[in-house]
Amino acid sequence: MTVILIVVDGLGARSVTPDVMPTLVGWGTRGLIRPDGATSVMCASTYPNHASIVTGQLPAAHRMFTNQVVMDGVTRSGAELGPCVPTFLDAGAEVVVGDQNLIGVVSGYTAGRHWPPSGEIPPGTDLDDFGYVSDEEVTAQVVEAIDRRPELLYAQLNGPDTAAHIHGPDSDEAIDSYRSLDRCLAIIDSAMQLHWDQDLVIVTSDHDQETIDPSKRIDLRSLAYQRGVDVEVIHEGTAAMLVGPDASPSAWLDEEPGVERSVLVGGDVHLVFSDPGWWFADSAFPDFHGAHGGPRTTSTVAVAAGSTEGIAAIRPWFRGSRLGAEDWFDQVQVARSISGPSIAAGTGIGSTAQR
Question: How many Å apart are CA 44 and CA 334, to the nearest integer?
Fold first, then answer.
């Protein structure tokens, strides 16, 4: 059995409808689908959720609360560090992603094969407006990987997120990107025709997006500087992370327009969330019409199709009261165990353990 886990960037469960995504809905109809979807971890952004998917752990364990990590007072990309706990990626796995930085985020180097190689996009590759690999290019790589029959194929498609950021998640342009993504899934469907009774395909996403007003931006870095607050600030769309001894927002953000609330997530780390329509960004950041990060963007996709045995193995999670990003780890492990030994959590296999 090959277990194929496809993670779509920026696609909320509300967009999985028969008229927009007939292929994905069709997979769910003949397999499993949660109409209400699953739930991302916080922040509801790409790197923390991929880290939770491949490790089965919440951000408090893998230490990636946002796309960037504050370590010893220095802000670094999650792609530089990877999760600090084991992943399910081993010699029997392949990784194919549209966001090249995810090779580092999920410790993709530990898989038997990964693309883009070393996280570097090959010259001449078709790119989207943010410089990520187009879904069509990624799909071609996924089809090639399916032919190699790995035990696990971990794939990521980026198109919906780019379109939703630029135009807004409910714009015509974003909906067109969801349809285009579904056409890519149809290509994968065709490549799977000889394997549907043997393999298992699981589709989820990392987060949803919400519409924002580009002019309603809150620059927490500038505010902290102006108010003499000793804190590291990471802007993450409709969320922000504050790290430091003076990070408590109640001391300096109580009356700030557009700030909805905050939560302490561990140690001296706080997450701050914006009001609807507002977002966190400095004045130099490009105008966006869609953003993610906060609680209103935690809806993700939950669809599975394939072998009867594989569907039966993961059905309990789909029927549970809650399905979170961290739960995909166990589903993949159980599905892989049907045709061979799975990698036990905590073995250290597939982890860079750099932090």
Answer: 26
Residues in the chain, overall count: 355
Q: In this structure, is the dihedral angle defined by the CA atoms of residues 63, 54, 100 and 274, taken in order, positive or negative? A: negative
Chain position carrying tokens 């949660």? 34
The answer to whether residues 82 and 52 touch, using CB atoms and an 8 Å cutoff, is no
Tell the burial category of 196 from Cβ atoms under 10 Å away from its Cβ (0-12, 13-18, 19+). Answer: middle
pLDDT digits (tens, 9 = 90+) for 188-205: 999 999 889 999 999 999
Q: HSE (CB half, 13 Å, CA atoms) of 153?
A: 28
State whether residue 196 is helix, strand or coil.
coil
Question: Residue 344 and residue 258: Cα distance in Å, rounded?
Answer: 44
| Residues 263-295: tens digit of each pLDDT | 998 888 999 999 999 999 999 999 999 999 999
The Cβ of residue 344 has, within 10 Å, a number of other Cβ atoms equal to 11
Cβ distance 21 to 181 under 8 Å?
A: yes
For residue 23 the two structure tokens come to 């292929």
DSSP secondary structure code for residue 247 in this structure: -
The half-sphere exposure of 188 on its side-chain side, counting CA atoms within 13 A, is 32
> Are 307 and 1 contacting, i.e. CB atoms less than 8 angstroms apart?
yes
Rg (CA), the chain: 20
Least Cα distance to 152 among 204, 186, 113, 205 occurs for: 113
Give the Cβ contact number of residue 226 at 10 Å: 10
